Amino acid sequence: MSSMAPLLLILGLLAALLNTTESQIGVCYGLIGNNLPSPAQVVSLYNARNIKRMRLYDPNQAVLQTLKGSNIEVMIGVPNTDLQYVAASRDNAFDWVWRNVASYPDIKFRYIAVGNEVKPSDSTLAPLVHPALTNIHEVVSFYGLKDQIKVSTCVDTTMIGVDYPPSQGAFRDDVRSYIDPIIGFLVSINAPLLVNVYPYFSYSGNPSVISLAYATFTSPETVVQDGGNAYQNLFDAMVDVMYSALEKAGGPSVEIVISETGWPSAGAFGATFENARTYYTNMVAHAPRGTPRRPGRAIETYLFAMFDENNKEPQLEKNFGVFYPNQQAKYNLNFNSIQKGFESI
């Protein structure tokens, strides 16, 4: 029996590794369409395709009812329209959390995303985010769920003022009064920052400088050398810029979760089926590998989005789905794989 011990240890470590990395990819479930499958069909599709995590933008009760007992881990959003309510008082936050989280003990909530891409310049919404975060977290703590459910907010990359090279990443001076208290809050509760990262928009807005290969993980060589860190893809560079900005703003311990990333298959410059297929395929393969600044640390990533949503505008926003509304896969993404070879254009 003792001679088997090293083998069993190795197998145990391998199993732990697989368990950690295989579930790093989730998919955002949007509902802005008039031809989408029912919530029950969607949850069944997640399970059938081994998609273990879901981002839900608002507390849709029909979806929550269907998620009960599903074993899918959920990031649930406090939509921007609810920020004023939950920021106003702890009682309001209690009401929100009770109705949408605590009343569903058989749903595996992972995050509560308080607000999505609130602009620091928005004089109505921006002052609400920090008190809303605080109130929601206090209620989560009251229910004894603070270690199970992390409270954060979703930001985009437009708050970055310095983005090259990645080690010099820094937030814009005019957003520091907004983001610094949020970073301090995240540090205090050991929660990640949720970041929406879109190499597509960087590429499509500046194709003479950013190559398609760099944006879709298919560059054959280093594009940006930043000290000892070599960057072959734009996604890594964008994430590491955000890590650098966090470090400079007092948040070196704050992890990043990619709350959205995707590539449209139609509707605008560079939005083609092949480009989108390449990006999503390689994104799934890349997530377990980490970034040059965080090598070997799997990147928890939520693909945007589950379905093409025909009621969104402008046109390209209708075409981010990794499935068609008829539940057929648009791309052959392997959510079961730990790490597969990159697919070239």
- Averaged pLDDT: 92
Distance between the termini: 51 Å
Major sheet attributes: 8 strands, parallel, barrel
Low-confidence stretches: 1-23, 338-345
H/E topology pattern? HEHEHEHHEHEEEHEHHEEHEHEEE
Gyration radius from CA atoms, angstroms: 20 Å
Helix content: 25-40%
Proportion of residues in extended strands = 15-25%
Structural class: alpha/beta
Question: How would you portray this structure in words?
Answer:
- The structure is a single chain.
- The protein is of the alpha/beta class.
- It has helices at residues 5-21, 39-48, 61-67, 83-88, 90-102, 126-142, 176-189, 199-205, 212-215, 234-248, 273-286; strands at 25-29, 53-56, 73-78, 108-116, 150-155, 160-162, 170-171, 193-196, 224-226, 229-231, 256-261, 290-291, 294-295, 301-303.
- The strands form four sheets. Strands 1-2-3-4-5-8-11-14 form an eight-stranded parallel β-barrel. It has a two-stranded antiparallel ribbon with strand order 6-7. A two-stranded antiparallel sheet has the order 9-10.
- A hairpin with a 2-residue loop joins strand 9 (224-226) and strand 10 (229-231).
- Helix 5 (90-102) crosses helix 6.
- The longest helix has 17 residues, at 5-21.
Q: What's the arrangement of secondary structure elements?
A:
Elements: H1 5-21, E1 25-29, H2 39-48, E2 53-56, H3 61-67, E3 73-78, H4 83-88, H5 90-102, E4 108-116, H6 126-142, E5 150-155, E6 160-162, E7 170-171, H7 176-189, E8 193-196, H8 199-205, H9 212-215, E9 224-226, E10 229-231, H10 234-248, E11 256-261, H11 273-286, E12 290-291, E13 294-295, E14 301-303
Parallel strand pairs: 1-2, 1-14, 2-3, 3-4, 4-5, 5-8, 8-11, 11-14
Antiparallel strand pairs: 6-7, 9-10, 12-13
